[in-house]
Amino acid sequence: MKTLTMRFIKQRTALAVRLLFVAGLLVVNPAAAVSQQSDSDKESSEPSADSPGNPADSDATERLSLNGLEWLQRLADANRQSNFEVSFVLTRPGQEVIPYLWRHAVLENGLEAEQLNLQNGPGQEMIRLGNVVSVFEPDVQPYSIYADAITGPLPSDLLYEPEALVDAYQFITIGRTRVSGRPAQQLRIVSRDNKRYNYQLWLDEETGMLLKLNMVDLQGALLEQVQVTGLKISLEPAPYFAKINPQALPSAVAMTPKTRQHQWEVQFMPVGMEEIKRETRRLAMTGQVVEYKLFSDGMVDVSVYVQPAQDSLDSDVVLRHSTNTFLSLTTGQIQITVIGKVPPATAYEIAHSLRAVGT
Fold first, then answer.
1. Three-state SS for 153?
2. Between residues 336 and 12, which one has the greater pLDDT?
3. Of the candidates 170, 200, 205, 175, which has an alpha carbon nearest to the alpha carbon of residue 188?
């Protein structure tokens, strides 16, 4: 893994690199290549053998009557209740492929277990038992946090709580198609205020499991794709989970509560995006104190950093690295940085909406 390299001057260079690392803009060396085309209208719409015209298949007919949210609820139920093993690849135009292995199980005691493993390079692994997620990555001390889902390339609210997305997005059913040889239902997830990127996804008709997810920009160009390459559902949990020793996992620590007071507020955020975390940090590379707030709508996160302006550039700086926008600007005596999977225009609106509060 390595941080995004940017050409800034003096302390701006150090700050940019540090912030991009914090935001998780990591690049991994993959081993294969997959199609990077946008699939909004390019998937074949061939009728399958279980076409609703066949009166014998009443289940297929019933599934076709589902609306977008009901399809996503099928996805959530499958993810919570099934024992499965999924291989998928993450691709972005012009970059190499990142392969993952994702497992889920419902143990004998009813506890949910989950594993996400990065398959290339030195590896990264996350293990969830119930509401505790343990993280293992190179050159970092293992740790555990309290969380109901693993944070990975697939948004957790989409996988487990799609109803939490209704304020921010519309769910539109497109129709039947085929993905990886399986009958699938295509949907679109569209930002309600046109301030975020949109999504196309394909769900397996039989199981409700995810087969493909595209993130597209406001013009419909592909930004990121998750493509399932292997799907196995079983009656029993995978043998892997029997090897986990809960006593050997790191003890869980609580996340920082949203109680720290900052003397500024963000006046604009896309519809449905809420503050979920705030901190004050001292950057190791510069020694500067940075105030930080994290916002999320359940699909994407946006981080806002505020610090005293020092050696700032005269003009604003905006960079887009694959799906992530990095915006840094100086106004008065403060420097504002916005990082997230939002269009640059939205990052500008967020940055320019900051206002001082309190005394």
1. coil
2. 336
3. 200
Domains assigned to the chain:
10-25+256-356 (3.30.200.100), 58-252 (2.50.20.10)
Q: CB–CB of 22/29 below 8 Å?
A: no
Would you list the DSSP string of 262-313?
A: -SEEE----TT-EEEEEEEEE-TTT--EEEEEEEE-SS-EEEEEEEE--S--
For the stretch 155-194, pLDDT in tens is 999 999 999 999 999 999 999 999 988 999 999 999 999 9
pLDDT digits (tens, 9 = 90+) for 54-69: 544 556 666 667 899 9
Tokens 């119930």 belong to 130
Tell me which H or E stretch contains 223.
strand 222-234
What sign does the CA torsion over 320, 224, 161, 232 have?
negative
> In 3D, which of 126, 132, 97, 129 has the Cα closest to residue 110?
129
